What we know:
Layout: H1 7-19, E1 23-24, E2 31-36, H2 40-56, E3 62-66, E4 69-74, H3 84-95
Antiparallel strand pairs: 1-2, 2-4, 3-4
Amino acid sequence: MTEKLSDTARKTVLEPLFEAGWELDTDRDAICKTFSFQDFTEAFAWMTRAAMYAEKWNHHPEWRNVYNKVHVTLTTHDVDGLSALDAKLARKMDGL
Length: 96
């Protein structure tokens, strides 16, 4: 079962993500980032690769794509906030 990140875990897990461009969502306990690509095809290909991991880990992002940009929001609905799954998927997305 997934658990909400503790205050201690948040500092350890989230700080590297903030350094990589992720931000706290100001409206809820979530992180978000906008990824930019050369064109729509690259953006959609990246989304497809990210979707494979999201499906494998049963942890699906909230995202939207407009041409060459993909805005991603990660939160764990089951715990009503951030969990280790969000950090795991964020790191994977950064690496794709």
